[in-house]
Amino acid sequence: MIKNIFKIIIGFSLIFIIQGCATKATVDKTSELDQEDKLVERVAIEAESGNMDKALQIYEEENGKDPLLYAILLIKNQRLDDAEAILSKIIEEDDSNVTALYYTSLIYNNRGDLKNEKKVLEKIASLDPDNVDTNISLGRIYAREKSYNKAESYFKKVVSSNSYIEDAVLGYGMVLLSQKKSKEALEQFNTVIENNPDNMFAYVKRAQIKSGNDDFKGAEEDLDEAIRVDSDNVWNYLDRGRARLYRSRYGAAVEDFTKVLSYDDSFFIAYIHRAQANEGMKKDDLALLDYKKALEIRGDYKRGFIPYALQLYRSNQWNEAAIYFIKAYNIDKSPEYLLLGAASLISAGEKEMAKKLIRENMNRIPKEDLLFHVSRLYIDPHYETMVLNKLREETDSFEKVKGMFYIAIYYDTLGKNILSEKYYSEILESGFPETLEYRVANWKVQ
């Protein structure tokens, strides 16, 4: 997010002009300069209070004599054309006037004219390579254009100076992070936080780096600080909820995702994450409701198809489960989803439809794959002996677990629960708890 640069410079500009007038007044004690000096002080007081319209009104009513200050006040009041006319005249007389050029770039910034803003800033950089505001602005522009090497060089020029300038350090950290230089970026965000413990953005970005390093505890702590700084930023609750979810702090995660939904109940990803947290607490009925709500909002969210289908399968909502398993299968052609879709159809009383589904798709499965032989079982019960022989011959432990599972759910459709439970128990002893097969087996033996 690009800050409004006027907030940063207006105070310095007015102080510079005040000091300039004060110097002139010591050299020339004329009444006119003394009045101008007092006028600038009055304008500065209003500007520092945020009363930019009042500051401009005073300057115009008193016929101020400094065109540059007048242009600044016009910019702050969004009278950009008037300001541009004044600055153009100054530049015509002196095309190396860095200050006038810089404020011209701000006019283009305000208009969203990136091309001309960049052109003016690059001219300033050729005249004054160490100009802080120009380097920061060019760093931002190149970062926006994803020219990260150039952006990095401009920010680094400012950061390498002795003084701490927060916008430069923050911008430098961002472009480093965009280039996956996480360690170097972390140092910059640390520096920002050391100098300004209330910089929410630095905490958020540092939390992002920590999450990427699987330091979810550290990420949560940083997001606690971000929320302390801005308790109304909904994204901070979403990110902290994720950190808590990945730490298996499911109850706390649910609180955060619920908070997000209290701000915006159409935020579909918060329903997805809350469903995951509820699954972690074995509150599967609540998870089912959240998955359903998420897919009502975003029916094209493909990553939600399988978790929702599994919950539908668990709750014996066979027809709906089949729809989502088949949707998932149509995306990536995984034989597992094909078999789950077929098992759901059989359980829903749609045996012929299940056979048709298998027949039309089983040849997509490599013939050496155990699941190819399992799929034949779904359309030909007489193939049972052959598939059990293939299961015994399988040497890959993970593939064997999958084979057992899809044979087991086939047995479920036939009501052969003793056989299926035997396989489910073996799956639970297999050591693959992160798989969907393990999850469903766990539901089945409860």
In short:
Helix content is 77%, strand content 0%. The chain is mainly alpha-helical and 446 residues long.
What does this entry look like structurally?
The chain is mainly alpha-helical. It has 26 helices and no strands. The protein is elongated, with a radius of gyration of 33 Å. The N terminus is likely disordered.
Q: Between the first and last Cα atoms, what is the distance in angstroms?
A: 50 Å
> What number is the mean pLDDT?
91
Count all strands and give the number: 0
Largest sheet, in brief, is: none
Report the total helices.
Answer: 26
Class derived from helix and strand content: mainly alpha
Helicity range of the residues?
over 70%
The dominant shape is elongated
Query: What gyration radius follows from the Cα positions, in whole Å?
Result: 33 Å
List low-confidence stretches.
1-27
What portion of the residues fall into strands of 2 or more residues?
under 5%
Order of helices and strands: HHHHHHHHHHHHHHHHHHHHHHHHHH
Can you lay out the helices and strands and say which pair or pack?
Elements: H1 5-27, H2 31-48, H3 52-61, H4 67-76, H5 80-93, H6 98-111, H7 114-127, H8 132-144, H9 148-159, H10 166-178, H11 182-195, H12 200-212, H13 216-229, H14 234-246, H15 250-263, H16 268-280, H17 284-297, H18 305-314, H19 318-332, H20 335-347, H21 351-361, H22 370-379, H23 384-393, H24 397-414, H25 417-428, H26 436-445
